[in-house]
Amino acid sequence: MCIRDRYPGDVGCFVIYFLNWVHLSPGHAMFLGPNVPHAYLSGDCVECMACSDNVVRAGLTPKLIDVEVLCSMLEYKCTEGENGVKFASTVESENSILYDPPVPDFSVAMLSFGKDTTTKSPPRANASIVIIVKGSGIYTTSYSSGKIKPGRVLFLPAKDVLEISTVEDVVCYQAFC
Hints:
Blueprint: H1 3-6, E1 29-30, H2 67-73, E2 86-87, E3 90-93, E4 96-99, E5 107-113, E6 118-120, E7 128-134, E8 137-140, E9 145-148, E10 153-156, E11 163-166, E12 170-176
Antiparallel strand pairs: 1-2, 3-4, 4-5, 5-12, 6-11, 7-10, 7-12, 8-9, 8-11
């Protein structure tokens, strides 16, 4: 089904002419500041947002599109294409790759644990949220334990560590300040 058939009369189909095209490969990261429109065309990604209540839709949705609010809040500044939004990751340890955008609001770490191992995550100065995206095993924190499965979300208090005993390779993402 064609987009115009799905959303007849929706001018959101023209937004592609106003956006930068950024191609990310596995392991790449990008940062977009507030009030910058974005869309995903294909693939999987992990998106971390600072606290906000400003989700405003631009089109191609049956949900509310508030054109006046959208036009008043958008950032109307050109960037340097891909180079203006991509940033490099750093290796924290053999199990952790840190994605640290140029803001103090949050960072994201990709944690990976090999099959049939028991490993601990690095402690963080602040509380964090961990989402499991691949694998199985058992997790333990200072206050809980349970089975690992994709989609499980865990809360870690400040300075707590996540200990994982794997049955198969485990990949998870940890968001923290």
